[in-house]
């Protein structure tokens, strides 16, 4: 048993215990409800001195692309850095509800995709949040029915799902279609390819029934489709420099960052420690993430879905800032977003201080960092 998991169990024992644009720019199209994870409210490191806040409220999705949060909380690696300050996790099923919770103070720190990060920052005119770190890259694939689609050219005239109008995967697919020279109306999804906005919860059944010919979706939905007979036609990572693009960021409310920088630093130390442990222990980390998913959803992922899904996701401290800016540009080109002012969306100084102290390379903000 990993020492971190033992620490967590000891700790628990010791504790006894939008307008269209807002709809368009969501995370991964998983729904809209937030849930408090009551079983983890006592997630506090035994002993240890409380920092400037009694608690830190952390939001994330019950999804493999949020593995840093799943594993960091499951294994107690984040709580370990917080001393006597309690972690209070909440799970969300869509980006807008998590951004609303952040703005309302219901959470302080969140794990979230690039589109809702951009939208939240833009809508607040740069006042609501900062991106303070990275979490995951990749994990998005175009999966098709191999009986109907054998080559890229076969996509014309077919019905291909994305999770939601204007979400991260929808924007990526529309941009890819455009680069092929095909025409699709972004709002209606009609054109040379029929883009069908379908919730990831129902997409596998729709694919199995034949009402969809394929889908551009994140993991583990992509691997669920493969388990239903689908074939991966394209891995989105191959379209990006070094096969890397941001799928999950770490954000913080500017108010909490200003009032409790010590707590933010501690959480970041925990995420860096978690990411290091995940990358050093991929099999144990995969099992931990799946155990967390089972706890949150009541059902673990089967091996035929979990294994390929996990393999396609890269866990990283780097927020891959240049790719977030590119994704914003793609949304603008598709007509789903007015050109946003992203200056100041990043504050990577706390993370870089931690990385430097750990002897790791610092990460860049692509010129979009806070100006001092």
Set down the secondary structure blueprint.
Blueprint: H1 3-15, H2 20-24, E1 34-36, E2 55-60, H3 67-74, H4 77-81, E3 86-92, H5 95-104, E4 109-112, H6 114-123, E5 129-138, E6 140-144, E7 159-162, H7 168-179, E8 194-197, H8 203-209, E9 214-218, H9 221-227, E10 231-235, E11 246-253, H10 254-259, H11 261-280, H12 282-297, H13 303-311, E12 313-315, H14 321-333, H15 349-357
Parallel strand pairs: 2-3, 2-4, 7-8, 7-9
Antiparallel strand pairs: 1-3, 4-11, 5-11, 5-12, 6-9, 6-10
Helix pairs in contact: 3-11, 3-12, 7-14, 9-13, 11-12, 11-15
Describe it.
The chain has helices at 3-15, 20-24, 67-74, 77-81, 95-104, 114-123, 168-179, 203-209, 221-227, 254-259, 261-280, 282-297, 303-311, 321-333, 349-357; strands at residues 34-36, 55-60, 86-92, 109-112, 129-138, 140-144, 159-162, 194-197, 214-218, 231-235, 246-253, 313-315. It has 372 residues and is of the alpha/beta class. The strands form two sheets. The protein has a seven-stranded mixed sheet, with helices on both faces. Strands 8-7-9-6-10 form a five-stranded mixed sheet, with helices on both faces. It is globular, with a radius of gyration of 20 Å.
